[in-house]
Amino acid sequence: MTTTAKPYDISDLTDKDGEFRRKPSTFRNTISKDPNAIFTPEKLVHYIGIIAHPQLTGHRTLIVRSLKGLEDIIGLSVVNYIFGDKGWKFSTPEETPGCIPDTVNNAQYLSELCFKANPDYEGRNKGQNFYPKHLSSEIDKINDWIYNKINDDMNHIGPLFEALDDVEAILSENYFLVGNTFTETDIRLWTTIVR
């Protein structure tokens, strides 16, 4: 598989002032029964979850895959835990215990799959959202502040504790973060807090 992947440079993840600011993900598609959808349930035989154990999105992906009973439907590849100069590498279990190579496309690097999906790809890949549409606006709103105030602010104690106070206020009135429904938002928070 040929790619135009450039070597990884840490400056790709920082702004001009040198501060790390996570870039928006490029691939945000969902599986839908809509006949015009890019990904439909009928095509599930071709789907594979690709995760990196150090990533919170990978942790959430494994949890949702298990909770939904999708282990026999959606395969799994696990990239090397080291993000190298070409990005995430599909290592063999012999090279790196716990890794599962890409057996669908036989890619060596995740970036190869990104370029296969979009030849003009310039970003980084992240996991997909998995949430009920009727709660999507509320989930997005809470996910946004969990992402910005808890997931990314674990090293900024002041804002973190303010965000945790907000979580406590929500959970003092609800069993879950979005009303009485267990959603991706609960998984997003839990995977950060438990680590």
Describe the protein's architecture and organization:
This protein is mainly α. It folds into two domains: 10-117, Glutaredoxin (3-Layer(aba) Sandwich); 133-194, Up-down Bundle (Glutathione S-transferase Yfyf (Class Pi), Chain A, domain 2). It has five helices and four strands; from the N terminus they run βαβββαααα. It has a two-stranded parallel ribbon with strand order 1-2. Strands 3-4 form a two-stranded antiparallel sheet. A hairpin with a 2-residue loop joins strand 3 and strand 4. Helix 3 packs parallel to helix 5. The longest helix has 17 residues, at 157-173. It starts with 47 loop residues before the first strand and ends with a helix. The model is unreliable at 1-8 and 125-130 (pLDDT under 50). It comes from Dentiscutata erythropus.
Question: Would you spell out the secondary-structure blueprint of this structure?
Answer:
Elements: E1 48-51, H1 56-67, E2 75-78, E3 83-84, E4 87-88, H2 110-117, H3 136-151, H4 157-173, H5 184-194
Helix pairs in contact: 1-5, 3-4, 3-5
InterPro entries: Glutathione-S-Trfase_C_sf (IPR036282), GST_Omega/GSH (IPR016639)
Protein name: 10571_t:CDS:1
Pfam family, one: GST_C_2
